[in-house]
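Transcriptional regulator, AbiEi antitoxin, Type IV TA system: structure, please.
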Amino acid sequence: MPRRRTDVPDLDDLVAYRGGLVVLVRDLVELGMHRDTIAYRCRPGGPWRRLAPGLVMLRNGPPTRDDRRRGGLLHAGPDALITGLDALELHGLERAPRPSGPVHLLVPPERRRSGYGLVMIERTDRLPGPAPGRWPIAPLERAVIDTVRRMRERDVVRSVVAEVVQRGLRTPAQLATELEAGAQRGSRLPREVLREVSAGIRSVAEAKARVLLQRSKALPPALWNPEVVDEHGRFIAKPDAWFDDVAMAWEIDSHEFHLGPADHAATLARRSAMTATGIIVVATAPSRIAREPATVLAELERTHAQAALRPRPRLYALPDVPTSGAFVG
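Here you go.
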C-alpha cells in the first residue's frame, strides 16, 4: 500500500496504483486526497472528469470506450464481466456493430448497482467464469446470446451468428444450448436465425437467398454449403447452394459477405473447378435478390430445367453438419 500523503498524489502514482486513468474516489481518499480536492479537480474546465458517482477519470475529455469499460467494471464491483457488443469486439468479431452507449455488464444476483448511463447492469444467477484475456469478458457463446436477445434487426443477428459459426468459433448447437439455458425473453429471433445457420447458411446474403427459394414451386430444396466430391471422393468445391438432383450450384456472388479479400480469388477458382466437372453454376449478386427477386427466381428455375436435360455428372454432396450437432429446436 502506498504511504498516505496530504498533497495531491502524483498522476503516475495514481495510474500505477489502479492500473489506469479511471479510478474510484475511495482509492483517491485512501491515497490521502481530500474529497474537496477531488471535487475541485472535477469542476467544469478542471483537469479531471467525474464519470459516475464515486468514479473519476484522471483527465478532462471525452471518455474512450476503454475508459467506459474500465469505469463500468470498477463501478460494478468484483466478479463483474463485460458482455454484449463490447465483449464481441474484445473477442475479435468483425461483423457485429461497434459498441456504443452503456457497457453491458453481468454481476452476481445479490449485487445492487445503478448504471448512471455508464453501464447496463444485469444481475444473473448464471454468472460464467471469464474468458481468457486482458479484460474480464463473458465466454463467446454467452456474449453472443446476450447481444442478439436484445436485437430487433434480423440481418444484424444473422451477421453475428453466421460469423461465429463460419469462423469455427462456436457451433450452432453450442449457441443453442446457451440460448436454452437463459431467459426466453427475446429468444424468438435468435432461435429462427439458428435454424437457418443449422441448415448450412453462413451469411446474410445466403439467408435471404434461402427465403427466396422457399417461394418457388418448381425448385427442390437446396443444400447449403455442402462439400461436393467426385465418384472417387475427391473434393471439388463447396458451393453456397446446391441442387443435387441436377448437379447445379448457386453462388451468391459477393465477397462482401465473406471473411476477406482473398475470398474473391477463391470464389473464381471454385467456380472454375465446378464447371470443369460439368456442374452448372448460376452466380447472383446479393443486391439482385433484394431488388429483383422474381427475375432471379425465374432464372434459377429456367437454368434448373435446362440442367435436367443433360446427363447428370457423377458427383455427390456431403451436407455441412457442425461437428457438435445441429440445432433443430
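Notes: The CA atoms of residues 65 and 100 lie 8 Å apart.
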